[in-house]
Amino acid sequence: MDAEQIRRLEPQLADYLKRFEDCFARRDTRAHFPVYVRGQLSELPRKSVEPIALEAGTAVRTLQEFLTQLSWDEDRMRNRLANIVGEEHSDEQSIGVIDETGWAKKGDQTPGIQRQWCGSVGKQENSIVTVHLGYAVGDFHCLVDGDLFLPESWSQDRERCRRAGIPDDVVYRPKSDIALELYDRAVAQGVRFEWLTFDEWYGGKPQFLRALAARGQKFVGEIPKSLMAWIKPPRVTTRPLHRQQRRKVPRIVAGGAKPQTVERLAKSHPALAAQRWQAWRIKDTEKGPLVWRVKHVLVYVKDERGLPEGPYHLLVCYHPITGEIKYFFSNAPAETPVGKLLRVAFGRWHIERCFEDGKGEVGLDHWEGRRWIGLKRHLILTSVSYLFLAKTCQTLREKKSGVDRLPGEDGDGRDRRGAGIRPACAQATVRENCQSHRLLPTTQRLRSHQPHEGDDPQITPPRHQADRPAPMRRKHELAL
Questions:
Q1: For residue 132, how many other CB atoms are within 10 A of its CB?
Q2: pLDDT score at 73
Q3: 10 Å Cβ neighbour count for 207?
Q4: Which pLDDT band, with edges at 50, 70 and 90, does 429 fall under?
Q5: Could you tell me the pLDDT band of residue 26, with boundaries at 50, 70 and 90?
Q6: Residue 258 above 60 pLDDT?
Q7: Helix (H) or strand (E) segment spanning residue 100
Q8: Least reliable range by pLDDT among 65-74, 278-287, 470-479
């Protein structure tokens, strides 16, 4: 990025921050807002209150009070951020991503802290956990909302909660309930998710899946291998089970087939076991194409009454090098192409990158405090900072590439922001027991995150972080 681009960023940031000015009633309180955001976007190695304040020449205690004591409307700021995302980044291929992240911390005074699984260190650790909702379109992604997961041990100890400033109406909620609240808040502010995706912890909660379906939200989520389903649904009758029973209640006919786990279905049911694997190029990465083998079938699951409900999509995805198997479940219409489902299913990397960049670039996990309101405001301010970073990097990428319009899936020339293009070669079938694969000739294609069915090139194992585009770096793409 040249000096002219750097010079222009300060006015852009000032204009961006003005969009949140009505969240502050007092001018002196409002003045601390850009100080905190600029500190998060700076080159400071640690972006907690003290180094930000010292770098800006502000009293440390004053900036601490900005987070925990001064009066301003953080809920309005969160809503305004969602408004911006909904109005300026709406797209028919948008993906909402639900996930959680942990922050390892010392002591026992931080709100919500306890020994629990912390993904950032990959083990049980003294930490806090926050649940987040991300938004992604093409290469653009941001954090729309986030909230603290309050463990039951905290919720049951209201005196401890009061010491941390946690209101009495903030109690333990399952993470899936928190995720639904985040989703509802975003939708209420105009954010529209064409799709939603999540990991198997959320996908293993039938009530969570039903809640999304009741909201009319399409999803493709990973599910545990223990999820029970039928490929051919059992017959349902309303005939009374006993002569004395007069009320007609729908039930499965006696002796009907019992549901099986999706793992069992994949191994033994003819509809899957005899089905040939299809090689799908999930995306092209810097280390080569990422390819999974996929089987697809429509299934039926038990509803809350124990009756078959569906059909739903079941995707069985196998990586031939690592041997990893993933199962995905979707409530999309039965005619939805498999390629479209896979694009969403493997789209969870967006929020993982948000966490990585959020912690490495804007200090998501640098918060140090003991007050619940301070943590809540920090999460909102971090999302505001991250959105500016994401918008700026997107603009710079577009200017650098010089490509404003990419062909859509239907070749209509509509702007998809890198969503997906047609495969360049004919569909190829890969037999289940094949040990080696030839690289089929392909024409040159633009890099894409849209899965492509067909050729089975040199297969690269899933590398998680390495499979995704390079993270945003302030020193290269943002300097204030």
A1: 24
A2: 98
A3: 11
A4: very low
A5: very high
A6: yes
A7: strand 95-104
A8: 470-479
Q: For residue 427, is pLDDT > 70?
A: no
- Domain residue spans in the chain? 220-335+415-463
pLDDT reported for residue 350: 95
pLDDT of res. 266: 96
Q: For residue 132, what are the contacts with CB-CB under 8 A and spacing of at least 6?
A: 98, 99, 100, 101, 143, 145, 146, 182, 351, 354, 355
Residues 6+ apart with CB under 8 A from 161: 154, 155, 168, 170
**CA dist., res. 290 & res. 320, Å (int):** 11
Using the 8-state DSSP alphabet, how is residue 465 labeled? G
pLDDT score, position 66: 98
Cβ atoms of 312 and 329 within 8 Å: the answer is: yes
Q: 147 near 183, Cβ under 8 Å?
A: no
For the entire predicted model, the pTM comes to 0.84
6: enclosing H helix or E strand? helix 3-18
Select from 83, 44, 451, 473 the least CA-distant residue to 280.
Answer: 451
- CA–CA gap between residue 230 and residue 57 (Å, rounded): 65
Q: Are strands 95-104 and 195-197 parallel, antiparallel or unpaired?
A: parallel
Q: At what angle do helices 372-401 and 349-361 cross, to 10 degrees?
A: 110
- Please state whether beta strands 260-261 and 277-285 pair in parallel, antiparallel, or not at all (unpaired): unpaired
What token pair was written down for 427?
């569909």
Q: Tokens in use for 217?
A: 């939200």
Q: DSSP for 200-264?
A: HHHHT-HHHHHHHHHTT--BEEEE-TT-EEBSSPPPEE-S-SSTT--S---EEPTTPPPPEEHHH
pLDDT band at 468 (very low <50, low <70, confident <90, very high): very low
Cα four-point dihedral sign 426, 137, 45, 106: negative
Q: Which two tokens stand for residue 94?
A: 């948008």
- Map residue 148 onto helix, strand or coil: strand
- Residues in the chain, total: 480
The identity of residue 205, as a single letter, is: K
Taking the C-alpha atoms of residue 450 and residue 464, their distance in angstroms, rounded to an integer, is 17
Which tokens belong to 447? 């890099």
Q: Identify the pLDDT of residue 55.
A: 93
pLDDT tens sequence across 383-402: 999 999 999 999 888 877 66
**How many CB atoms are located within 10 Å of the residue 160 CB?**
15
Q: How many CB atoms lie within 10 A of CB 276?
A: 11
Task: Say how far apart CA 280 and CA 328 lie, in whole Å.
Answer: 15
